[in-house]
Write a structure and sequence with these properties.
elongated; 2 helices; 13 strands; alpha+beta; 6-stranded antiparallel sheet
Length: 221
């Protein structure tokens, strides 16, 4: 029996055994490659999905960390408070005439402290407005190593500037002024997070000293 001529299947027409062997091998190789490529594609899809989930997980962790920081900011971190001490002002009306402005001066004592457990590396920077406002020791930046709760730092300020004039019918002319003083505090909490807080002092002839204390915020947020 000729293996290349089986019955009606003549090798010249249908090919011999080696030809069919190559066909079979090629077919199964093709099937294997298709399955391999499909498996690789599924693997790549799984890897992409895993990477996406990892990124989402990292984002969730970052958001949770930010929320924890905010929670810490609201509950734990130091918040500085300013209390008014002595306050005196005077408007000098000795210079008279509609072309002149009066002169004012004031003296103000402020007490600064916080109610947390601890604050360190404190820097207090003083910003003044167009009127002349100076600390009594003429410094504009104070660096403090640390402060425990309720420990008060006292600062004395004096100011001088031009007061406006209020003119009313049949009333003596009246001088008035308003001056702003801003503290910018930078400091660290117990966890060494750096914080910033701004406190605005408004000084005027028509009202007592007004103190606006902003919420502390993380310098890295």
């Amino acid at each position: 029996m000729n293996i290349n001529n089986f019955g009606p299947f003549n090798s010249d027409t249908w090919g011999n055994v080696s030809d069919w062997t190559m066909v079979v091998v090629t077919f199964f190789t093709f099937i294997y490659l298709v399955r391999t490529f499909s498996a690789q594609r599924r693997s790549i899809t799984i890897q992409d999905e895993t990477l996406r989930l990892q990124i989402e997980s990292q984002k969730i962790q970052f958001d949770q960390l930010s929320l924890e920081k905010l929670k810490h900011a609201n509950e734990v971190m130091p918040k500085f408070v300013v209390e008014k001490g002595n306050y005196q002002f005077e408007i000098d009306g000795s210079v008279d005439g509609p072309q002149y402005l009066h002169v004012f001066w004031f003296n103000l004592t402020l007490h600064i402290y916080h109610q947390s457990v601890y604050a360190s590396d404190i820097t207090l920077t003083i910003h003044k407005d167009h009127n002349t406002i100076y600390p009594k020791d003429t410094k504009m930046i104070y660096e403090i190593s640390d402060m425990v709760a309720e420990e008060k730092k006292t600062y004395n300020f004096f100011g001088q500037g031009q007061a406006g004039i209020i003119v009313q019918n049949d009333q003596p002319r009246k001088g008035y002024f308003q001056s702003n003083l801003t503290f910018v505090l930078t400091y660290r909490d117990q966890l060494k997070n750096q914080l910033t807080q701004e406190i605005e002092i408004i000084i005027g002839s028509e009202f007592d000293v007004l103190i606006n204390s902003n919420r502390p915020r993380f310098s890295t947020i």
